[in-house]
């Protein structure tokens, strides 16, 4: 009888311990920096965004087994471990160094990140499921969200007196521009350094990728041809030389 009671108590204790370590469903998902998205929605382009936090997106999922992914503005991807402490996820840079605490604000459902190093508070909102895609084996909503806010839509352009239609979709497809079939906006990483005075966009045509410049003014989207101004052996640097397309959003 005593053995049965001890065994039962042990099982109950292990069950409680497992539940204590179990990640609440409320944390699961892809979370985007509210500050970053807010600036995009105001028309600020990626090169001009000044966000206090460098990590634009956080991916949290039980399948990651006590780890989460940070996607940062320089294309850095960091996998960090965490331990659940009550209703908080305590995140570690290493086995001993605390990176910060993650919690959910009950009133808004926002993800709140408190960084230990800076003592700053950052807010994240859950990404829409329709914007999440598998990219290099990781779930991310960053690319589709940026496309959706900045460029997605139906446009009309002119070739002499003839009008033509152009469509940019959030999955990176484009139709109506010569033989161009896909696009990708430079929003982070080394490409941010390739031009000082214009945003960059990569167009795919017949399997090859070429870099162009772009800018927006209200409902107008302008695409520029670029000239390489870097020396051989240097990282590429560009400047705009000719406006190729003036597109008006419908």
Compose a concise summary of this entry:
The protein has 250 residues and is mainly beta. Helices cover 15% and strands 46% of the residues.
What does this structure look like?
Helices cover 15% and strands 46% of the residues. It is built from 3 helices and 18 strands. The chain has 2 domains: 117 residues, Lipocalin; 99 residues, Lipocalin (Beta Barrel).
Considering the chains and any ligands shown, give keywords for the structure.
single chain, 250 residues, mainly beta, Lipocalin, 8-stranded antiparallel beta barrel, 8-stranded antiparallel sheet, 18 strands, disordered N terminus
N-C termini distance: 78 Å
Secondary structure tally: strands: 18
Low-confidence stretches: 2-20
Q: Biggest β-sheet, characterized?
A: 8 strands, antiparallel, barrel
Give me the CATH architecture of the largest domain, please. Answer: Beta Barrel
* Mean pLDDT across residues: 87
Which percent range fits the helix content?
Answer: 10-25%
User: CATH topology of the largest domain, which one?
Assistant: Lipocalin
- By secondary-structure content and strand pairing, the structural class works out as mainly beta
Give the C-level CATH assignment of the largest domain: Mainly Beta
In spatial order, strands of the major sheet run 1-2-3-4-5-6-7-8
Radius of gyration: 23 Å
User: What percentage of amino acids are in beta strands?
Assistant: over 45%
Q: What is the chain-wise order of helices and strands?
A: HEHEEEEEEEEEHEEEEEEEE
How many individual helices? 3
């Amino acid at each position: 009888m005593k053995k049965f009671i001890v065994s039962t108590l042990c099982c109950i204790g292990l069950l409680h311990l497992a539940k204590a370590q179990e990640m609440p469903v409320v944390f699961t998902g892809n979370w985007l920096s509210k500050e970053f998205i807010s600036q995009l929605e105001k028309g600020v382009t990626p090169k001009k965004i000044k966000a206090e936090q460098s990590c634009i997106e956080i991916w949290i999922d039980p399948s990651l087994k006590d780890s989460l992914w940070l996607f940062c503005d320089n294309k850095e991807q960091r996998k960090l471990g965490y331990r659940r402490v009550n209703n908080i996820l305590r995140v570690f840079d290493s086995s001993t160094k605390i990176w910060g605490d993650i919690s959910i604000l009950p009133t808004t459902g926002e993800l709140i990140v408190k960084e230990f190093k800076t003592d700053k508070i950052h807010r994240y909102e859950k990404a829409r499921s329709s914007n999440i895609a598998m990219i290099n084996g990781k779930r991310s909503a960053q690319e589709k969200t940026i496309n959706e806010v900045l460029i997605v839509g139906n446009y009309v352009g002119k070739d002499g007196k003839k009008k033509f239609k152009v469509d940019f979709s959030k999955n990176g497809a484009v139709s109506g521009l010569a033989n161009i079939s896909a696009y990708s906006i430079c929003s982070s990483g080394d490409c941010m350094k390739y031009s000082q005075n214009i945003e960059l966009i990569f167009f795919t045509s017949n399997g090859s990728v070429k870099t162009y410049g772009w800018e927006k003014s209200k409902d107008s989207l302008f695409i520029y041809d670029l000239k390489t101004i870097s020396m051989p052996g240097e990282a590429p640097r560009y400047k705009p030389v000719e406006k190729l397309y003036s597109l008006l959003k419908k």
